[in-house]
Amino acid sequence: MIVIAENLNVRNKAYMEAVKNQDKKTIESLSKTLADKGADIINVQCSLDGIGDEETLPLVADIVQEAAKLPLCLDSRNTEALKKTLTVCKEPPLINYLSQDEENTDEILSLVSRFKASLIIRALKGTVPTTLEAKLLILEDLIEKANAADIPNERLFADPSVVHIGGGIGQEHLLNTHECIIALNEMVDPPINTIAWISNISTGMPKGVKSRINSAFLCYLSGAGLDAAMVDVNDAEIMKTVYLIRSFRDEIVFSSADIL
Amino acid sequence: MIVIAENLNVRNKAYMEAVKNQDKKTIESLSKTLADKGADIINVQCSLDGIGDEETLPLVADIVQEAAKLPLCLDSRNTEALKKTLTVCKEPPLINYLSQDEENTDEILSLVSRFKASLIIRALKGTVPTTLEAKLLILEDLIEKANAADIPNERLFADPSVVHIGGGIGQEHLLNTHECIIALNEMVDPPINTIAWISNISTGMPKGVKSRINSAFLCYLSGAGLDAAMVDVNDAEIMKTVYLIRSFRDEIVFSSADIL
Lengths: 260, 260
Fold this sequence. Notes:
The structure is a homodimer of 260-residue chains. Chain A is an alpha/beta fold and 260 residues long. Chain A folds into 2 domains: 1-79; 92-252, Alpha-Beta Barrel (TIM Barrel), CATH 3.20.20. Chain A is built from 9 helices and 8 strands. An 8-stranded parallel barrel of chain A has the order 1-2-3-4-5-6-7-8, surrounded by 5 helices. In chain A, helix 1 packs antiparallel against helix 2 (24-37), helix 3 packs parallel to helix 4 and helix 8 (207-223) packs parallel to helix 9 (236-248). The interface between A and B is large, with 36 and 36 residues. Chains A, B: InterPro entries: Dihydropteroate_synth-like_sf, Met_Synthase/Corrinoid, Pterin-binding_dom. Chains A, B: Residues 1-253 form the Pterin-binding domain. Chains A, B: Belongs to the vitamin-B12 dependent methionine synthase family. Chains A, B: Keywords: Methyltransferase, Transferase.
């Protein structure tokens, strides 16, 4: 189970304030905490729409990787920003993400290929499709395009796009998100990695239940074979859950003292 | 997800005292609580070795089914007791269990067949085998024998035998328990049900972590396709987890208020 810290995103006020003010110390401190809490990779987002990322992303990414000594996941829709940031990355990052909405697909693929980066491919085309078939069709198309650009499956992370459980057809989505993980593990050869942004399931839920829903869903998708999860690394409950999943998979030696 | 209450077992002192004293009121009250807490089926055990079950099991089973208005899971190694109890069961129960250790396999199978009961078949032969292959070999043999006795797969519940996470090769066991659920779902046709005694994973663990380990493991196996779980129905944490699994599977309509 690869743990990607979702924490450095636009909803994190302290972080965004620090990004705005180029407050290196705060970004360093936030990054170190994420490493201490057990992140394997840190996702770095500086805006939702990518505007201005060409200035902020390389700067922030550099501070984060220095402080945390971890690889990065670059969360931007701005290829100019990605290009600049890829040149400062000490090890090939994960690029978050390519969907069927991008107008610059070829450019993204060429960057990923050139820098030997990994790539999240998302089941997304305008909206998140409601059926398993539609999700798989998008992902298959993106795998094909990535392969054609010389990006092997081992560097691809397929994301079935988790939506929140509360809203209307949310549960139908969760059902086929789970099925999508299983189908990808069964059907794609050579094997592809699967990834999910776990916290999305509890968007809009009362604070008191978020952690429980996220933890249960992380275990549930892991049972289906999930390889990587974007989670709130500062949530102790989630990190205990990650510990348990790694124990169930016999990846670490379990001790009850570690989750007390 | 079928929830089987494990609670009426020999480790439950209040219950065993009531069994000993034929204290109908206490058994009724314990049973009603299990129904209220959300059990679908109640497991009834009166001894570990089956001695005396021919007296106690039919009596207790009758009290439990009357009070809880639920089907039963008869947990006894005593075929005489099973036979007597099957005649008082209002609906065909689940028989817990048949392994490769029984000397009276034919008798058990014939009872299950005659009373149209369901049957838990356990990956067990002396001890719990350490490899996936050994577990599957035992289960395949038991499926074959059950089918030959006219018990269709839809009335079989295969149990990979959960062992505790703490002890020596415990984690290797958990790994192949998970793989066993997946393999059974993929390989057996017509489909068989899968079942796990969840609490076994946390045997010997400190009280403060049992619930967390059990809940995580239940979600994890459910993600792999587990159909039924033997759990502590009085553990609110576990029942919230069951609620979430049913929500993820779109079997019920989710409301955050239900798990607050």
